[in-house]
Structure formats: structure tokens, C-alpha cells
Please model this.
Amino acid sequence: MSALIQWAFALCAAMVAMGLCRMLIPNSGMEKTFRFVVSVFFLTILLSPAAIRFPNLMIDLPLHTQAETMQRSAHLDEMTHQQALRIAQGQLRQIVNEKLSQRGINAHSIAINFTTNPGGEILLESVVITLDEAHRESQSGLRAFLESELGCLVLLHYV
Model:
């Protein structure tokens, strides 16, 4: 019986506190948010005896140790880093293809090499482009042009 009295008292106290808070909140955009929060809080208090009486209704959140959380965080950081590298490679390939197509050249392959400095910055190290042997003589300034446009070492291979 005392549990029922405590629950009823908590319900009444929550209603009084919410009523006072509602009077203090001005009529504005915050009022809708406050009403929602108060409604959820009141509903939680209202249903708390059912959750205590029927433990199967309780929601168990998995608790992880700090080591597991750090491991997951490191994994997510690595995945994000790899995705950033793939996106950067795709965009750089597109830029190189555009620069080559301006000169009427189609590349067989474009390899992009990145490095990561200790601060975590991704730096473009070099670009390796494989071209047809026929382009060797007609494109003598191609390497210098690409290096000036890309700002990195460009290696040209011919097949």
C-alpha cells in the first residue's frame, strides 16, 4: 500500500512541478518542445509501476566497457579515413582524366598514392599514370603540366 501512496505522491508532485514550469515558460517556440518533454516525463511516471511490477517490460541497454567503446571508436575512425581516401582518389582520378582528355589522351590506368602525416592529414604523394606508347613523343610537357596542376610528383608509364 505504501508503494501506491508513494507513486500517487510522485505523480502529484510531478504535476505541480510541471504546472509551475509551464507558467514560467513564455509563449514561444520553446513551449511546444517543453510540452512534449513534460508529456513524456509524465507518461514515464505514470507507467513506472507497471515497469517495476513486470520486469519483462524493462528495456536492457547493452553496457560496454570503456575498452570496447574505444575499440569501436577506433574502428569507426579507420572506416571514415578509408572512405575519405576512396572519395579523394575518385575525385582526383576524375580531375586527371579531365586534364588528359583536354589534350586528347586516354589513360590505361591511374594510381594515386596518399600518405597520412602524424596529425592525421591526408597528403597526396604521387600519381602514376599508364598511357599508350604512341603518346610518349607527342606529349613531352605532359608530366610538367600535370605536376603543376596537381601539385605532386607525377610518374608516366607507357605500354
